[in-house]
Amino acid sequence: MTVNSQIRTPLLQIADLVTRFGKFRALDGVSVEVGESQAIGLVGPNGSGKTTLVNTVCGLYPSASGSIHFAGTNLTGKRADIIAKAGINRTFQISKPFASLTVRENVEVAAHHARHPRDVDEVLEQTDLASHSRASASNLTAAQQKRLDLARALVMSPRLLFIDELAAGLTPNELQDVAAMLRNLVNDGVSLVVVEHLMGFLEQVVDGVYVLTAGQVIFRGPLRDALADDRVQEVFLGRNDSARS
Ligand SMILES: Nc1ncnc2c1ncn2[C@@H]1O[C@H](COP(=O)(O)OP(=O)(O)OP(=O)(O)O)[C@@H](O)[C@H]1O
Ligand SMILES: [Mg+2]
Description:
The chain is α/β, with parallel strands linked by helices. It has two domains: 1-87 and 162-245, 3-Layer(aba) Sandwich (Rossmann fold); 89-157, no CATH class. It is built from nine helices and ten strands. It has a six-stranded mixed β-sheet with strand order 6-7-8-3-9-10, sandwiched between helices. Strands 2-1-4-5 form a four-stranded antiparallel β-sheet, with helices on one face. Helix 6 links the parallel strand 7 and strand 8. The chain is globular, with a radius of gyration of 17 Å. It starts with 9 loop residues before the first strand and ends in a 9-residue tail after the last helix. It binds adenosine-5'-triphosphate (ATP) and magnesium ion (MG).
């Protein structure tokens, strides 16, 4: 069973995407498909291009070639705000809340930029932040900041969400909670692309994975098969930090 066989209508279709920084091809012809209500994992060693893929699809970096189609619309080269309004949102590898605002205000600012904002209180409930809504964002724990980042993305009513290393630095209990939260999102019809180094966490959340190395996809399919794949093992060899569970 491959990632592809689970997809009926790809919601997101990334084809042969190339992103350059000068002459360096951080993405070197990447093709990824994500179906409706599907969660896929994006794994690969440090510097393999995972965040670059998120940033390119979300319109922060221009692509040199290739295409991005989402829900039947060509989003290649579109501005970040247009892409967000089309229904693609993301969390950041390093959370960037407005530190001087409260938790609620941070979510309200995001809601303000949405075409169809969700109810702020409902999103705060969903991300387990309701009891902290009046706290200053700067006083949150690392886990709460990550959930605030998620809340800011969720309030925009995404159809597809890129999650860039949400699990890093969380305790085992916090990881369980976040995994359940993400799985509930998928059950509610949101598609996810989860960038993650923690395989045990990914196993609970995703339907399949893409493995990226040096800007190229070297494997797509179930996580279990990825971990048993010779090329994937080679890529992770000596990089135990990238394949820990
Ligand atoms: N803005 C940029 N300018 C120049 N080079 C960049 C830029 N962003 C990323 N790169 C380079 O592109 C490559 C891919 O980086 P990227 O951040 O996408 O990796 P990653 O897979 O997300 O790694 P990590 O697991 O460490 O987060 C790296 O060599 C990085 O140095
Ligand atoms: Mg990254």
